[in-house]
Amino acid sequence: MEIKESFGKLLLIGRQPGRMFHQFNHFLGDQEELESISPPANTVVQNRTGTPVNSSYGGFAVGSYNYSYLLPKFTQCSNMPMTYSVAFTPTNASLFITFNSTLLGLTISPYNTTFVARQSFNKNVTIYARHNYTWDIILDNDPENDEAEFFVTALSATGTALSISTAWLKIQAMDNQGITFSVIDAPQPVLPATWTVFTLRVTAKDPFNQDTPNVYDIWLNVTKNDAPVMTQDHSLILNPIYITKAFSYTFWYQNYTDIEGDSVKMTCTLSSTVTDFTWVSFEVNKTIKGNVTFFGQSPRDNTYAGNYTLSCQFNDQYKDFINTFDYVQQVLPKQQIQILKNETKAYIRLPQNITFNFMGYSADPQQEPNYYQLFINDTLYDASLFERKWMDWDSVSTNLTAAPFNNTHGGNHSISIKFDDLISVPMFMNFTLEIMYNWPLIAISTLNNLNVISMNWFYFNFNVTQIFKNPEGEPFTMYLRLSQSGNNLPYFITKNFTNGTIGGFATDPDVGNYNMECVGVDDAYWETFIPFIMIVKPCYYKCKLCWDADYNTCKSCKPGFFFYNSECLDECIEGTYPDPPALKCQNCPSLYNAKNAIREFSTQMMVAIENGVILLVLFVMVRALSSVIIVLNYLSKMNLELLPNKDIFYQEQSAEYLNVQLASTFSGMMNLIFTIFIQASAKTAIKPAKNVLVHTEINTCTPCEDIYGLFTNEEYECEEICGDGVKINKQCDDGNLLPGDGCSQLCQLEYGFECLYPNKTCRENIPPSFSISTITPTNLVYIEFSEPVYVKNEKGISQENLLVEIVGSLGSYVFDWRIIQDPNNPLLPDRIIRRFELKLSEMKQSLEGTELVKISFIDYSLVQDGANNSVTLESFSTINPYPFIFLSAEQASTASGGGTSLKYTFLSVFSFNLALKVVLNSSMQYLWGLVHALQVFNFLLYMNINFPDNVVLFAKYMQVASGNIDELNQYIPNFADYIIDENKVVEKKDDEKLQQSFKDDEMSPYFIISFGQKLSIWAIGLLVILPFVLVMNRLCKKVKLWEDMAGSFFFNAPLRTFIEMYIELILQVIINTQFVKFTNFSQMIATLCAFIFGSISILLPFLAMSIIYHNRRSIRKMKWKRKFGMLTEEVRSHSVLQLYYYPLFMYQRLIIAGVIVYIYESPVLQCLMIMLCNVSMALYMILIRPFKEESQQATTVLDEFVIMTCVGLFILLSEKKMLPDEQIKLGWGIIVLILFSVCKNFGVVIYFGIIKTRQKLKQMFSAEDNQKDSVHSSDDMDKSDEDDDLQADQFDTMELEQEVLNEQSQKKSNQNANTSVFSQYDNNAKAKRLTDMNKQATILQNIPGTTQQQ
């Protein structure tokens, strides 16, 4: 405590008796003036204040010392006597100060004074409620170096004494050097006060002033500890938005601080004046850590308009007071659409059109999309109500088109366009559309009936203006139509012009009366019609074309009648003959007619010559046309070649007459020239009919049909009859019109035949040939003949008469061959033979595929067709054989021996493990790895790759891994034989669809057939073994063997069997998907069986994953192990992915099977996809490490890499062109890889099988040693089962610890997501969590089997 000084006042008064007085203030120096007489002279007295310095300066120290101090005297100018007195302020100073008025001296004894000291400590201490504060009051010094003593009294605001040891106010320490005060969790002021003052009264004294201590009041101001406040101003009222708009407002929660420095806690809630405010939300740290975002996208509904408030409450950790800050987002209702312009009343007259476009008639303040609706006469527009859509409305383009075409559309139509945004109140724009009527045309005249003659053209013209009149004076159109037929016309009217003209051509079927209408159409499409009749009359019944319908005045005749002199006759009259093509009667040629023609011609020529006008010209013409005459003469002879007595007619009659006439006029050369000219002219002028033979002697016409062997053909020429067995000039005639027998239906020789005699069967003369149609990859050769053949004897097609050679780079090839005998097509005499087959075998060298297989006959005459034509001499056929890899006996023995060793070693190891499983209940986990590897290697060889024979031979023995044992298969029935008829299921076309690899292995494409033996075993297990086990378990209760066997049927044993056979089963099902059939009962059963097992196979991995996931915490329990233990007994359980090994294993096999079948035509793609599956499984094994045993894990990964290496060699084998020997070497490499994987698995199975057996035996013997005797042998087993259940019920501590941590993390994240409270955890929450963690750790330590390290 610092004590500086205390002040007092000493007043020295000097007076003149009865006249005056003088006083002065010792410290303050106050003076008063003298009255009446002169006052004493001023005297100066030095103040004694402050820290004591010496006897003349400074204050006096309180203590045990006495001090003397002389005061100066007053002087007066008149030397008047003075008296002195002393006045003390305060008055109690007289207790330790005495005054000697004679000596004017002061004696000061401050050891018992009540002198008040002042300290330098803070007398006003201000703290916040709920806060802690500690401060010290320290003694500064004591001038006398006395020992200080302190006493403290606490007073409330009302002056009531408080206990100094209250819960919140304490004296931490107090000694002679000072006091330490401590305030802990100061109380809040009583509302409405914002602060409370407490007084701490400190009494300070030393041994010398016990009665007059110094008292100091310290005011303790406890100010209200308020809630956090906003320290950085920001708006709480957000900018208003309209409905459909979004808002987002972000503020920093650091903008709110606590003035007292306490931690800040914030809790925000949403509220609104609207019932539904789910669209509004807030999020902490949405954009960046440290902020709060209040956001939302308003719905498109004005009912959501209102105020949305985000109320954020802020308080400190004491939660005495809460400040609430409301962020208010006002959402205004969307404004109505604004109508920018209106449409006035519109007028149109029928049939005018009008179009309105209302785009731009409105505007949306918020730029929201607008939707338009049309109301016509207060009814929503419906296009179906408007005929031919004369009122058309497009709500997208807002086009309104009115196209009235009928007076029913006229009148006033109220049009209302609704502008709607589907949010605010819609707006309407209304106007009226007036459609003025249009009246129909007026008929001003009638029409007469029209007459038309059949088989004639007709045209009629109508004057439109004389028929109709338009009242409106507008243009109009006219057309004709049949009554009550729409707007159709008779089909024979082909011309119909808008000016009123019609025309056409009527035929006989058109004869009749047609009710017609002349229709006038105005611009409003009103129709006015005038009826009339069109009458189509036929010609005379004989006429085809005629001039008049009522008389036989014809232009041409109908078939059966002949035209002659404008009439149609039934028969031609005498002197004429019928010409059927022309339907005319032609005049028969006669001598009279020829003579008259020639006489007339010659007479005219003689007149001209006699006149001398054209003699010279004629001479020149004859010279120029001499060559033409010769040609014409030759052609005339050809045309008359068939006519009898032609020489008589032309030479004797015509030429004689001409010569007589010319001889009288010309001589020499001119006579000869004119004779030739006129003779040629006569021949060209007289032509006979085509369908008759002209007899010039008797002047008659004989039809062709009247002459034996002739008929009139389609060209009406005389032609020989074909097929009557009479041959005149025909190539052949075998007495029939059948083609293909050597003589066609046109009596022409056909290729490959010869016809030696008429009316006899022709003979084929083309020898048969043969060719190699195809060759299979196994070098099975198919030879076909060009036509069916016969053999004279059994030697015809035999090894004695066939020559089979292989021609190639080696020169000579050693091989054997044999003819494949087909029971349905025996190679015997008198049997039709179309084809035969032979097989190349026993080859002693490899084939590259570039060689030629050449086949020929030794004696070709032994093979003939039905016409006894032998096979073409010296003929042969060749084809390239398929590449063949020759395996020597040593190589074949090696491959076969290796496969045999593999097979029997596998069976031995399998039997060994199975025995250990039955006797000792040991694990078979390593055996399954061996099975899986062998199965994959076996089924990969079904890929579309030509594997070397050594690989194929070796691979046959790997089928043992799938349960295919040849020695046992003959004793196992096929399930399919009992429920379906295989002959009704299998079809010949199946071989065309089935992939070659499966055909080579003689695999049936039907699941129920190919998998039938295994289905039989399953059926025996379910129908025989299972009932037997259940009965034995019932009879021999508590015998563990029968209990385990019964339990394994539900469901471990079926699951294990299904998984181990999975790849073969799913492969068979996928193959069967290509052969889905429902034609008969057997096919339906086969398809249904494949569908059932296929569905189970595809769903099994997914179901296994689901079962494992839902029971992942129960996999250690005995109940799980008895049902589904095989799914998890070999794998770890630290993560779900580790438990998913077998489902993923099945998925991999499913993909491999699908790739083998569905991508068969792309072997490289097959290999790449299978390698991808292997890589994926290897990565899964390496990263997830599912197996409990690291050795099993390493073995499986190694198998995947070996399979990938083999598949890589498959790609090389498929893509690279290699010689057969190179393929064999590559095949040995594949076999070595397979053997490496298999031997490695054999070693692992045997080694770890022995180790596991030893462990099991040791466990059994140790348990037996500790076992107590019991009457019942099964008691210990029951106890063992109970122990197993107990052990299974125990928790895995690592998993439990991980689950606890996960639950805590989940609880924390849920709490953060649900509360949106941002604060620091207080000390109590931390302590609680620490306590919970300690409890959990204690639980973990108390769990049996838990180590300290865990």
From TrEMBL:
The keyword Membrane is annotated on this UniProt entry: yes
Polar residues: bias regions: 1301-1323, 1333-1350
Residue numbers spanned by region Disordered: 1264-1284, 1298-1350
Biased composition, class Basic and acidic residues, residue ranges: 1265-1277
Keywords for the protein's UniProt record, in alphabetical order: Disulfide bond, Membrane, Repeat, Signal, Transmembrane, Transmembrane helix
Coiled coil: none
Gene3D superfamilies, alphabetized: Hormone Receptor, Insulin-like Growth Factor Receptor 1, Chain A, domain 2 (2.10.220.10)
Bilayer-spanning residue ranges: 613-636, 657-678, 927-945, 1015-1032, 1053-1071, 1083-1109, 1139-1160, 1166-1184, 1196-1214, 1226-1250
Keyword Transmembrane: yes
One Pfam match: DUF4215
Domain of life: Eukaryota
SUPFAM superfamilies according to UniProt: Growth factor receptor domain
Listed name of the protein: Cadg multi-domain protein
InterPro entries documented for this protein: Furin_repeat, Growth_fac_rcpt_cys_sf, Myxo_disulph_rpt
